[in-house]
Design goal:
The complex is a heterodimer of chains A (437) and B (453).
Chain A (H helix, E strand, L loop, with lengths): L15 H14 L3 E5 L7 E4 H19 L7 H23 L3 H32 L12 H20 L5 H23 L19 H8 L6 H32 L5 H12 L7 H10 L6 H11 L5 H8 L3 H9 L4 H12 L1 H17 L2 H7 L8 H8 L5 H25 L1 H13 L1
Antiparallel strand pairs in A: 1-2
Chain B lengths: L9 H7 L2 H5 L6 H5 L3 H29 L8 E5 L4 E5 L4 H37 L7 H7 L5 H27 L21 H7 L4 H36 L6 H13 L2 H11 L5 H8 L13 H30 L2 H9 L4 H29 L2 H7 L19 H10 L4 H31 L5
Antiparallel strand pairs in B: 1-2
Classes of the chains: A mainly alpha (437), B mainly alpha (453).
Chain lengths: 437, 453
């Protein structure tokens, strides 16, 4: 046991002893009370994990004898946590006598798995109890202190091992957060491929997979003209990303690179306008559009979007401000006009902000809901995807169309996510520009 | 420049000018014509003529009608020739108000033209006085691509903003001083000016409306602060974890979280809303996993719903802050951390004494604009709960998670109480303006501090 004081290159042995103790504690917890049964009847009996396993094996052999049933998959969690905790503690003990980096890494790996499985045990205990027939209405509040010791000791052991191997503990947090963050996304993707229709299903992973939801979206045109909605949105998005980008870039160029009377006043007016909630005046916009004969048309969406585009000049102005003035001055000496400078000098230097603006206005068109919904009312053929998909999740329709809604959501989201992830760099540059400015 | 006859302002141009300058205050462009810019002067004159013609033909009438917003209610009159009752067309207050606003905006443009023509005439005169040749019309047009590029580039935005933002805004602001509610809907009924009565009903106590307004305002403020700061700190911590030493594949982790942000908000919010329903997957799983025996009222109980929207907003908002903060974190000088480490500061102390003050300093303006954005965060509330759970304590339509903006939207869309919606809009403006002013004074104070040391 003299190894605790030794120094090994690449390892930080300060926490070695504590890690081994935590791992041992997790092992001991396997024999401490895991579930409290029959609590509602007054006479509670406690069972340890090992005890439960013994019962499961006994029960399973009985069932298997009678009907040759397949092995219930939930049992994996309880077996897994026992086996992995034991392997982890074995490696913990080995590491005491043979302290090197390789052993530590293996121990860390098994300790991680042990923690994952004992964590999952929390989610599966009820199912295990029901399947095996040990307790019908088990709830997690009946988990006994043995389980919590197992869970916490595994966790502490993992953290300590990671500190020994100089691994960043942040991985644990990132993994947990990552699962939480992706959970809804996973759900909607699974739903999009689900064969069973309907909103309410009592399980997470679909029983059957199919492409029908996607096919229905594009073939079932009389009820659900999704292809139409999608095209509408694409038209609006393409038009407005060209027009809006031009307007935004021109406005911010003028406000950033030139000085003229009323420039400050213009920016202040824009700021004041921006402080009113935008859709407060939608009803008036609607009447004006009606006056010029544009109501209920896609054109109206493009026009109104372009009209307000200048309000978003801040980010690109912040960017233009960072381009040295000397470049402009050199170009002026060479006889270039302001317009030529804009076209031939400033724009080529501003690739990232152009991408940012294009991306922003393209995405904006896909997610804009309020104005299109007010503009189109019940004229379904003009809907954009945002209005259409919202309409599908109305409580009257949600049961019939939930899987189609999910498929539609996936179709809309996938290209955008790909685009976004691909062009993320520009977005970050734009965002940090907005903070600087 | 020589001191002779230069630098005249609007008044001195008139008092010191010759007869043409003086006359050009009434007949636009006269001074330009006299000083050699004939075409330009004629354009000014033509535009003035168009404006006068417009005012005589309809503008005057429009402004006159705005005083009362219409007097003849639509009704049935007996047509003796045909022997039947027929609908007599009455005044439509809404269209009258709109026409009036249009006239006002056109007048605003005319005033701008008037100022511009005087300025332009005076400039031509000055050039003459200095012995130079004033620009020809062609040269003026050419200058649009050069020193006057702002006229070229800003013309479209100004026109667009005037028609689709400023004009509607004036219209709605005026509406706050009328009684255009459910009971006064044109064309059947007229509405008229009521002064600041709407503000009184909304802000004073005792009325049912004010009993809705104050709690909704309270929740709006709570929501704004909770949503902003939870995402701010969450994003900061996440960014620090991802950027800390020893985390490999930083880009992968970042992308992982960015996915939630890239999905259009209406999709992710509707998805989460369906997941949180009474029969939604989250309740199903919680019961299956044995965490609860019965469905949890995520969106149907007041407190649960309020916490739910904040949590879901956290889910959406953290990646945005994370991305933004990542860039700033890299700008913090590494020496600061090293010297702190030598002085024996742990990670917590380093965060409290270095990271946080630096971030706070750089991001205060962002934080305040974010706060204002959250007060007006229509999407999260509307897509997630649509303001529900509803309550009988509130004025029709408003629910317990409604923000001022979503309530405003409901008032325009569902119950057509435009006057109340407009009043709320103005109140929101006042709140936003207050916070913006605070932000300005803060950032000015910071500029004087000569940066973070």
């Amino acid at each position: 046991m003299g190894n605790f004081r030794k120094t090994v290159i690449g390892l930080n042995l300060k926490n070695h002893l504590q890690a081994v103790i935590a791992s041992l504690l997790a092992f001991i917890a396997l024999f401490l009370p895991y579930v409290r049964l029959g609590g509602e009847k007054g006479v509670a009996t406690n069972k340890s994990v090992v005890g439960v396993i013994a019962e499961l094996i006994k029960g399973y052999t009985n069932i298997a004898k009678s009907n040759g049933d397949s092995f219930p998959w939930v049992y994996v969690f309880v077996f897994g946590s026992v086996v992995l905790t034991i392997i982890a503690v074995v490696f913990a003990l080995v590491s005491v006598f043979k302290t090197n980096e390789k052993i530590m890494r293996v121990w860390q790996c098994f300790q991680t798995l042990a923690l994952v499985f004992s964590g999952l045990l929390m989610f599966s205990t009820r199912a295990i109890m029901r399947t095996s027939g040990i307790a019908g209405n088990f709830l997690n509040k009946d988990l006994s202190f043995g389980y919590w010791i197992l869970f916490i000791a595994s966790f502490v052991a993992l953290v300590l091992v990671m500190s020994v191997t100089k691994t960043n503990v942040g991985y644990i947090a990132l993994s947990v957060l990552g699962v939480i963050w992706l959970f809804p996304i996973l759900w909607i993707v699974l739903t999009a491929f689900r064969a069973e229709q309907g909103y309410y299903v009592g399980y997470f992973i679909p029983k059957g997979f199919t492409f029908d939801n996607f096919i229905n979206l594009f073939t079932n045109n009389s009820v659900l003209p999704f292809a139409r909605w999608w095209c509408n949105t694409l038209i609006v998005a393409l038009c407005s990303c060209v027009i809006n980008t031009l307007i935004v870039l021109m406005t911010s160029y003028v406000l950033s690179r030139t000085r003229f009377a009323g420039r400050k006043a213009f920016m202040n007016i824009l700021m004041i306008i921006g402080m009113f909630p935008g859709f407060m005046s939608l009803i008036a916009v609607y009447n004006i559009l009606k006056g010029i004969g544009l109501n209920q048309s896609l054109m109206a969406l493009i026009v109104v979007g372009a009209a307000g585009a200048a309000m978003g000049y801040h980010v690109s102005k912040g960017f233009f401000d960072t381009i040295p003035k000397a470049i402009d001055e050199a170009a002026i000496i060479d006889g270039a006009s302001r317009f030529q400078i804009f076209l031939n000098v400033t724009l080529p230097l501003s690739k990232s902000i152009i991408v940012y603006t294009v991306l922003g206005s393209f995405l904006g068109a896909w997610s804009d809901y309020i104005f299109p919904s007010m503009l189109f009312g019940d004229k379904q053929s003009s809907y954009t995807v945002a209005v259409g998909l919202y309409w599908l999740t109305d409580f009257k329709r949600i049961d019939t169309y939930y899987t189609q809604f999910a498929a539609g959501a996936v179709i809309v989201a996938v290209p955008i996510v790909v685009l976004f992830v691909w062009l993320q760099r520009f977005y970050v540059e734009g965002l940090s520009g907005s903070v600087k400015g | 420049m020589k001191a002779v006859n230069t630098n005249r302002n609007l008044i001195t141009t008139f008092t010191k000018g010759d007869i043409f300058s003086k006359l050009s205050y009434v007949v636009l462009g006269l001074s330009n014509i006299k000083n050699g810019q004939v075409l330009k002067g004629l354009v000014f004159m033509a535009l003035e003529a168009v404006y006068i013609a417009f005012m005589v033909m309809t503008g005057r009438h429009n402004l006159h009608m705005m005083r009362t917003l219409g007097e003849n209610t639509q009704g049935m009159t007996y047509n003796e020739a045909l022997g039947i009752y027929e609908v007599s067309k009455g005044d439509n207050s809404m269209l009258i108000l709109l026409a009036g606003v249009v006239t006002l905006v056109i007048t605003g443009f005319f005033i701008a033209l008037w100022l511009f023509s005087i300025y332009s005439g005076e400039k031509a005169r000055q050039m003459r006085a200095l012995g130079k040749r004033p620009n020809t019309f062609i040269e003026d047009v050419k200058s649009l691509a050069n020193e006057n590029v702002h006229f070229l580039f800003l013309s479209v935005p100004v026109l667009g903003l005037s028609i689709f933002t400023v004009m509607p805004l004036i219209y709605m602001i005026l509406m706050a001083f009328t009684n255009y509610d459910q009971d006064h809907q044109p064309p059947g009924n007229l509405f008229t000016w009521v002064g600041i009565k709407n503000f009184f009903t909304l802000l004073s106590t005792g009325d049912r409306l004010s009993a809705t307004f104050w709690p909704v305002l309270g929740w709006t403020l709570i929501w704004g602060f909770a949503a902003t700061f939870s995402c701010y700190f969450g994003g900061m911590i996440l960014a620090m974890i991802i950027n800390s030493k020893g985390i490999k594949y930083k880009k992968f982790w970042r992308t992982f979280f960015v996915i939630t942000m890239a999905i259009p908000a209406f999709i992710s919010l509707r998805v989460v809303a369906t997941m949180l329903g009474e029969r939604g997957i989250i309740n199903v799983l919680l019961q299956q996993w044995g965490f609860t025996a019965s469905a949890l009222p995520f969106l149907s109980n007041v407190t649960w719903a309020r916490v739910s929207v904040i949590v879901v907003n956290f889910w959406i908002g953290v990646p945005v802050t994370m991305l933004m903060v990542s860039g700033i974190l890299m700008n913090i000088p590494a020496e600061l951390y090293e010297s702190a480490k030598i002085d024996g500061a742990g990670p917590v102390l380093a965060f409290l004494k270095i990271t946080f003050p630096y971030m706070w300093f750089v991001t205060t303006p962002y934080l305040i604009s974010n706060l204002i954005g959250n007060f007006n965060n229509f999407n999260v509330i509307y897509f997630l709960t649509a303001g529900q759970p509803l309550t009988l304590d509130y004025f029709k339509g408003a629910g317990k998670t409604d923000l001022l903006v979503t309530w405003l939207y409901k008032l325009t869309k569902d119950s057509n109480d435009y006057n109340l919606a407009a009043t709320i809009g103005i109140i929101i403006f006042v709140i936003s303006a207050t916070f913006t002013l605070i932000s300005f004074s803060r950032s000015n104070a910071m500029k004087n501090e000569e940066g973070f040391q």
